[in-house]
């Protein structure tokens, strides 16, 4: 066991030919994602902000953000904020939309917003929008925090899960995670009923000890990450699951490695699970016992050596999602030339530190406001 621990601390087990990580090609790949996309991405128009997140956070992980026009992108992101109207009648619809597909006026200001019957925030776009702003160095001063939190509360269902949009959608663990990230980033948990969300996560534990998208469903690497990361952001992991339960979750996760990782038993490995499952193992404090070399070799086998980026499988086309999570998977193994990733928030640790600094500033401002509101003693 001692030998296993030592091997784990040195960077995992396994031998094999060491493949090159082509950093500059990946930088150019993410730059292209911000400029022009292939036709096959057209179906993602309403989710354009998530593609921007993969590219921007990817460049941040590669310490190459200086290659983009930060101010222009910040203005574009703020233009996607669904703002309260003057009468505040749409507070329950606020957040961030995925792109300008509705043809709303370009408005990067703090408001007021313009009413539209089909305009509402999307929980994943609010999460990625806030991430992008912090990644780009913005102070979130134009984010209407009250409205974002009101819009978030309107998306939570009675069972504790969240829908993506007010009009209705799937409700599952993905959106619980988005909600937890939004509350964490805004440093305000009034946007969700945490007790109901925690109960939803607890009920989603399956018979084989992984977490599913909901109660009675199949365990999955992605939903296990979303549940565990949400609890970590809340600071509730050890309160919700006993040490025995956590050990069972650890076992389920560590069994997902073959060379890379898969999301479910008897499924092929896929680049993105090197982050989803790897980050879960990191949060559960046993990632050091995985086989780094085999995981690294699998990720790099999906690397496009011509145009950059990563695919889900070898000899497949790279895409923004797998390119980003391939980078993050390598970051967990301390790959040279890549920043460390925050395993719960899914951004670089530099960005998470910037966010922590913003929280300190907000706390000081709140404290000063409270002092100003207290009348002087006479």
Provide a descriptive summary of the structure in words.
The protein is mainly alpha-helical and 378 residues long. It has one domain: Glycosyltransferase (Alpha/alpha barrel). Helix content is 47%, strand content 3%. It is built from 15 helices and 6 strands. It has a two-stranded antiparallel sheet with strand order 1-2. The chain has a two-stranded antiparallel sheet with strand order 3-4. It has a two-stranded antiparallel ribbon with strand order 5-6. Strand 3 and strand 4 form a beta hairpin. It is globular, with a radius of gyration of 21 Å. The N and C termini lie far apart (69 Å). The N terminus is likely disordered. Keywords: Magnesium, Metal-binding, Prenyltransferase, Repeat, Transferase, Zinc. It catalyses: geranylgeranyl diphosphate + L-cysteinyl-[protein] = S-geranylgeranyl-L-cysteinyl-[protein] + diphosphate. Its EC number is 2.5.1.59. InterPro entries: GGTase_I_beta, PGGT1B-like, Prenyltrans, Terpenoid_cyclase/PrenylTrfase. Belongs to the protein prenyltransferase subunit beta family.
Please outline the major beta sheet.
Answer: 2 strands, antiparallel
- What is the radius of gyration computed over CA atoms, rounded to a whole number of angstroms? 21 Å
Alpha plus pi helix count: 15
Hey, roughly how much beta strand do the residues contain?
Answer: under 5%
- Report the structural category: mainly alpha
Order of helices and strands: HHHHEEHHEEHHHHHHHHEEH
Top CATH class? Mainly Alpha
First-residue to last-residue Cα separation? 69 Å
Helix content range of the residues, please?
Answer: 40-55%
């Amino acid at each position: 066991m001692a030998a296993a621990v030592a091997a784990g601390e040195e960077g995992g087990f396994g031998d094999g030919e060491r493949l090159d990580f082509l950093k500059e090609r990946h930088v150019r790949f993410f730059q292209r994602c911000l400029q022009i996309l292939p036709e096959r991405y057209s179906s993602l128009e309403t989710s354009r902000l998530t593609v921007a997140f993969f590219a921007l956070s990817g460049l941040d992980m590669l310490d190459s953000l200086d290659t983009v026009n930060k101010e222009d992108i910040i203005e574009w992101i703020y233009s996607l904020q669904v703002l309260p109207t003057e009468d505040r009648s749409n507070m329950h619809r606020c957040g961030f939309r995925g792109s300008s597909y509705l043809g709303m006026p370009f408005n990067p200001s703090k408001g007021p917003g313009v009413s539209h019957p089909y305009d509402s925030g999307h929980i994943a776009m609010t999460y990625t929008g806030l991430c992008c702003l912090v990644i780009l160095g913005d102070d979130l001063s134009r984010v209407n925090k009250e409205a974002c939190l009101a819009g978030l509360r309107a998306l939570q269902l009675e069972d504790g899960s969240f829908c993506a949009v007010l009009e209705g959608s799937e409700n599952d663990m993905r959106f619980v995670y988005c909600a937890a990230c939004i509350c964490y980033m805004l440093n305000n948990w009034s946007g969700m009923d945490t007790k109901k969300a925690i109960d939803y996560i607890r009920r989603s534990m399956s018979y084989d000890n992984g977490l599913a998208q909901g109660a009675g469903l199949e365990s999955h690497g992605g939903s296990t990450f979303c549940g565990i990361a949400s609890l970590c952001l809340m600071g509730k992991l050890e309160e919700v699951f006993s040490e025995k339960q956590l050990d069972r979750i650890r076992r389920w996760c560590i069994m997902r490695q073959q060379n890379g990782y898969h999301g479910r038993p008897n499924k092929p490995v896929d680049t993105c699970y090197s982050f989803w499952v790897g980050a879960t193992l990191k949060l559960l404090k046993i990632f050091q016992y995985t086989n780094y070399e085999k995981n690294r070799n699998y990720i790099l086998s999906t690397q496009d050596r011509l145009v950059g980026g990563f695919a889900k499988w070898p000899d497949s086309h790279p895409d923004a999602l797998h390119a980003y999570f391939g980078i993050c998977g390598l970051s967990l193994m301390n790959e040279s030339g890549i920043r460390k990733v925050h395993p719960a928030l899914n951004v670089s640790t530099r960005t998470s530190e910037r966010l922590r600094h913003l929280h300190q500033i907000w706390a000081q401002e709140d404290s000063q406001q409270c002092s100003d509101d207290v009348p002087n003693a006479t």
